[in-house]
Specification:
The structure holds 2 protein chains of 2 kinds. By secondary structure, chain A is mainly alpha-helical. In chain A, about 70% of the residues lie in helices and about 0% in strands. The chains are: A mainly alpha, B mainly alpha.
């Protein structure tokens, strides 16, 4: 049983990305049905990824976009003369 | 998706044809992506912003060399990564850099934090500053090579192939690094989130 859990953990990331093959997917799902530890690990990992990806977690500096476009506008006006 | 790419190709052609102003429009959907890419490398807001500006200007100057063999977003990410690495080299001594490179060779402990039940932490908890800070510092503490893959895949939502292309590594390495990054985050954040951000208590009649 222990070994089986470890096997599931090794594939947790690919399972989340739905990139495990059909057979492994089925095996993992069967395991998850009766293993509350692996189910909780999977749920917590997914939840953490959703929280991290939310735009409020990594906010852009205030005024970032404005400054970026101002800088770009200057560049578009023409190449800077170095002389 | 197809529509977007076609529009982009059209925009690029017009910019190269002389309608320079359209570059503002071309870049707008990717502002956040460029910043996050820089931030994942330099880990400093001011430096990330400067770097993002440089990367965007550089993309504009080199637009004619974009041939469309990669997606525009991937090409732009590559420019942002180069800019970030350039800044990192300037800031860090060679010794520090090699420590970071070694991280992957080390056999770390990549087992998740065990727990027996997890009650979903709702997005509303992000209104709380300490929750956002905990998430950010957990990401910041990841070894650089893991943080960069995590940023491209999970924050910017590039796919495995695009991430591999942008970082110049194989798809398999992307998968390994992403797996480790996610497990490390789970391990680090579960104890914190469990004690500080319980999902609405009492929801299942468990009110104290």
């Amino acid at each position: 049983m222990k070994l089986e859990c470890k096997h599931v953990w090794e594939h947790i990331s690919e399972y989340i990305d739905k990139s495990v093959d059909a057979q492994l997917r089925e095996e993992i799902e069967r395991h998850l049905e009766h293993c509350e530890i692996c189910a909780a690990i999977l749920d917590s990992t997914r939840n953490i990824l959703v929280l991290t990806a939310d735009e409020r977690t990594f906010e852009l500096p205030v005024g970032y976009s404005k400054r970026l476009h101002e800088r770009l506008a200057k560049e578009l006006e023409g190449p800077e003369e170095d002389s | 998706m197809k529509m977007k790419e076609t529009n982009e190709a059209g925009l690029i052609a017009r910019i190269l044809g002389g309608e320079k102003e359209l570059f503002h429009e071309l870049i707008r959907p990717y502002e956040r992506m460029v910043y996050l890419t820089l931030f994942s490398i330099v880990k400093n807001e001011a430096d990330a912003e400067d770097g993002a500006q440089e990367a965007v200007i550089s993309a504009y100057r080199h637009l004619s060399s974009f041939r469309g063999e990669a997606k525009f977003s991937t090409w732009l990410t590559m420019i942002a990564i180069n800019e970030g690495r350039k800044r990192l080299r300037k800031a860090k001594s060679a010794a520090e850099e090699s420590i970071e490179e070694e991280a992957e060779e080390r056999e770390g402990d990549y087992t998740p934090a065990p727990l027996t039940d997890w009650r979903e932490i709702p997005l509303e908890t992000l209104e709380r500053k300490e929750i956002r800070e905990a998430l950010r510092s957990a990401v910041a503490e990841l070894p650089g090579i893991y943080r960069q893959v995590f940023t491209l895949r999970d924050l910017e939502e590039l796919n495995v192939e695009e991430t591999a292309q942008a970082l110049g590594i194989s798809a398999n390495v992307v998968k390994v690094r992403l797996h480790r990054a996610r497990i490390l985050l789970q391990k680090r954040l579960v104890p914190f989130l469990k004690t500080t951000a319980p999902a609405r208590r009492g929801f299942f009649g468990r009110a104290s």
